[in-house]
Amino acid sequence: MPAQRLDGKACASEVETALLERVNALKTDGIVPHLAVLIVGDDPASHVYVNSKVRMCERLGIRSTHIALPADTPEETVRQHVLAMNEQKDLDGILIQSPLPAHMDEEALTDMIRPTKDVDGFHPQNLGRLVQGRTDGMLPCTPSGVMRMLDWAGIQLKGKRAVVLGRSRIVGMPAALLLAARGADATVTVAHSKTEDLPLVCAEADVLVAAVGRPEMVQPEWVKPGAVVVDVGINRVEDATRERGWRLAGDVAPEVENVASWLSPVPGGVGPMTIAMLMENTVRSAEWRRAGGTE
Ligand code: NDP
Fold it and tell me: What is the pLDDT, as a whole number, of residue 75?
């Protein structure tokens, strides 16, 4: 039997419906949630991502400010923008679209964002809270989207063996922390480019989260029959049969569908959840503003 579809689009749509109510309640109290998205350079994929975030804000009645700077902008200019936005009273969330041009220190700039406005959840204070097991703050959007989607599908994690393929600061590592956190209670292995016997490690997983950035790397024989597979990867691969010459591929081979019990599609899986969680973080920050600026 083919795997059930972990439908991130459907789950995100439910999250959005709930957010609309929270946005309306904020508006009744005179607060319009406000997200600023700052993008530097002309990477086409990044502009697509930013536009979809701005469109989602519009749909939910969240105000958005879109700051687009040329690729040769000095890092100091970005720093000044962040400092000004930190102080802006009617602004709830600041997102710096990755990747920044090579001459900029992306982590240092992220670290400057006020933690309560860090809607990407990458600030050391927010990641540190996660390490402490506190999952009530600003959580990184992609990993928290994965968790929300698993919960939505009714997938039990308690006591299960989870393998996270990838250990990045923005996806793999926080995903591993969330899976291992109290309440989720999975037993987690983090695999990466130096992991030996990777297919065997993956094949032990009841829940496999692939966040590796290698198109269709996870093969059916890497997957335990009946496992839940979450495909975080978004890769552009050449495809001459498509008019545009490329298609999107995940990190998981499509044939895994014949082995797994659940599989998230690409596109339509983790991607929509990431944006939904960004919106949720923005609304949460606006609720903190309503409460007087404290968490
Ligand atoms: P990174 O490049 O930052 O991290 C990739 C991780 O995979 C690293 O830990 C790396 O190991 C590991 N890795 C790379 N190659 C191999 C290999 N051959 N064998 C085993 N491990 C390997 O990527 P991100 O975490 O930022 O993103 C991962 C994927 O998720 C990408 O496809 C990205 O586009 C996608 N993504 C999707 C999002 C969404 O909304 N759906 C949001 C963010 C990312 P090491 O640490 O040893 O180098």
Answer: 98
The fold adopted by the segment(s) 139-272 is Rossmann fold (3.40.50)
Burial 253-282 (b: 16+ CB within 10 A, else e): beebbebbbbbbbbebbbbbbbbbbbbbbb
Q: Residue 3 and residue 258: Cα distance in Å, rounded? A: 6
Q: Counting atoms of ligand 1 from 1, which one is nearest the CA of 195?
A: 20
pLDDT at 295: 55
Q: Which among 122, 164, 192 is the best mutation to test ligand 1's pocket, defined by most ligand atoms within 8 Å of the CB?
A: 192
What pLDDT, in 10s, does the model give residues 172-195? 999 999 999 999 999 999 999 999
Q: Delimit the domains of the chain by residue range.
A: 30-115, 139-272
Which CATH number does the domain 30-115 belong to among 3.40.50.300, 3.40.50.10860, 3.40.50.2000, 3.90.1150.10? 3.40.50.10860
Q: 230: exposed, middle or buried (C-beta count within 10 Å: 0-12, 13-18, 19+)?
A: buried
Question: Residue 95: exposed, middle, or buried by beta-carbon count in 10 A (0-12, 13-18, 19+)?
Answer: buried
Q: How far is it, in rounded angstroms, from Cα 65 to Cα 94? A: 9
pTM of this prediction?
Answer: 0.97
Q: Is 169's pLDDT higher than 80?
A: yes
Q: Read off the amino acid at residue 293.
A: G
The answer to whether 125 is a known catalytic residue is no
Q: Report pLDDT for 294.
A: 52
- pLDDT grade, residue 143 (50/70/90)? very high
Amino acid present at 249: A
Instruction: Write out pLDDT tens, residues 122-140.
Output: 999 999 999 999 998 899 9
The secondary structure of residue 252, as a DSSP letter, is B
- Which residues sit opposite 38 in a β-bridge? 67, 96
The one catalytic residue in 7, 92, 118, 120 is 120
CA distance 18 to 23: 9
Residue nearest to atom 40 of ligand 1 (CA): 271
